[in-house]
Amino acid sequence: AEGAKTIVCVHDGTGKAVAPRVAARLKAAHVPGAIAAPEDGKVKRNVFSGKAQAWVELRSDRRVLSLMPNSITPANGDGTATVEEFSGDLGAARVTVKEVRKAGAGIPLPEAEIVVSGGRGMKGPEHWGPIEELAQVLGAATACSRPVADMDWRPHHEHVGQTGVAIRPNCYIAIGISGAIQHLAGVNQSKVIAVINKDPEAPFFKAADYGIVGDAFEVLPKLIEAAKKLRSEA
What we know:
three-stranded parallel sheet, 10 strands, Rossmann fold, about 230 residues
């Protein structure tokens, strides 16, 4: 809207690309990855891969914020904002499309309240069926560790961690993931972390709220069965 002082977008791939450009055009302050609404001319964001938080002082009347998914609870009541449709003219395309791959119909990672993630402990892409089934039963998104994406076991858009997608779900279930610090940096804002790993010394257990020491191929069928039972009784 004309005259708006604050512009907010989601801190996803599109938001990270568009927000700084909009801020530059408007000569506005830009705060990426905000985790709270502006308060007294300041806004809070994560720093050092989520290990600390900082208040950023806004010294401009205009500000553009990219907000981390699931960081703010929606307000109650009906909104009163006016929605204006806009169709921009992109002009001549400057990108050559070499291949189009159909994306899965699953829940987008940044928006998911529950995420089921697999690592090298799953031993190959052919063993991903139980993870997808558990995610379907729980209404969750599927994810993976970086080594899994690098080996092309799973698509790169499912990679969570410091160099992948940073997430803040209500529950993160890590299966067969050892818990490298780079991975933890992207998931440590999860409200609850559950880990399944046959190695009792896996670093991930130190960051977990719940843990099961066991073979994923033995634990997952029982977990899926229990989840289906709870769902049928709900």
